[in-house]
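Box 3.1 A note on notation
Throughout this textbook, protein chains are presented in two layers. The first layer is the amino acid sequence; the second is a token string describing backbone geometry. Keep the layers aligned when reading.
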Amino acid sequence: MCEYPTSMANTSELGESSSPSFHNYASAASAVKLASLGLIMGISLLGNASLSLLLLKDSSLHKAPYFFLLDLCLADVVRSAVCFPFVMASISGGSAWPYSTLCCKLVAFMSVLFCFHVAFLLFCVSVTRYMAIAHHRFYYKRMNVCTCAAVICMVWTLSVAMAFPPVFDVGTYKFIREEEQCTFEHRYLKANDTLGFMLMLAVIVGTTHVVYVKMLCFVYDHRKMKPAQLVPAISQNWTFHGPGATGQAAANWIAGFGRGPTPPTLVGIRQASHPGNRRLLVLDEFKMEKRIGKMYYIISLTFLILWAPYISACYLRIFVRGAPVPQLYLSAAVWMSFAQAGANPIISFLFNKELRVRLRACFPSCLGTQTPMEPYCVT
């Protein structure tokens, strides 16, 4: 696959590299970077693989919001397994790229692809969350497996369309020594051809949060509304007045709402049983959708927080000629963008009780509990 040409090796241009103190500092910095990236990689692989296995194994989680979560997890697994080892190799090689130019472009393509994939998918998820809250019936009629597959395919198509042009030098993929990774080469505005990609990323992330704000406003406006409660007609002696009144009362009795003696015409017919304290199904589903929406919003907010420092540094390079970006800030910003790959499973298990319950049910031996699972109802 990737060869080892000497043309790509970037050697230090400063004489200070010969200083023992500088060498010790560089060695310590490299060790910290390798250890932190290895930790991020391990958490990402373990967390995303566990969550993916849970989503695939448990049939009760085979529904629209968790299909999107599965796609996010699998993408993060591939990103961690494919892209991060090359970053570790460049750090071990003294902040130099030890492989070919084509290999650098392929790794950069994968990195940008997964970044845009998360952004596009979180935007689509925000739209589906708003539909689930504001247009509940339409959402449940239309949001099936085929619709989810179509949305996921569309997201990957758009991501490839954004990440592929720089492979043909429409926007440049290059090894950036300060970032120790292959990615976009961000230059000053007049000589820059990556501004469009950065603007698209910012617009998608911003629009995602606008949709969540709109959903929050909808929930706030409807917070005092109560679902309609059916109060059926009940009689102890089955005497009613008006056309069809007795027939309607008999239908209510069959549905399980009647009390008192069985009407003479319905002797031998079994009455349906309904728990007296059971809430309306629509209300339970509405609360569940709000909980899932909260989880996805925190995932979107975490994506914004972890990528914002790096995106800000990129815009600074684009709009300010020769803008000096402190190396410590840039390294921290790059590593924060790496950490996003391991954040989703942690957020999912922390803010989704259903996932925690299903995890204990599916892997009881790993979690140290052997007690059988009680019937679970999302409230």
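Residues 254 and 271 are 5 Å apart (CA to CA). The first helix runs from residue 20 to 57.
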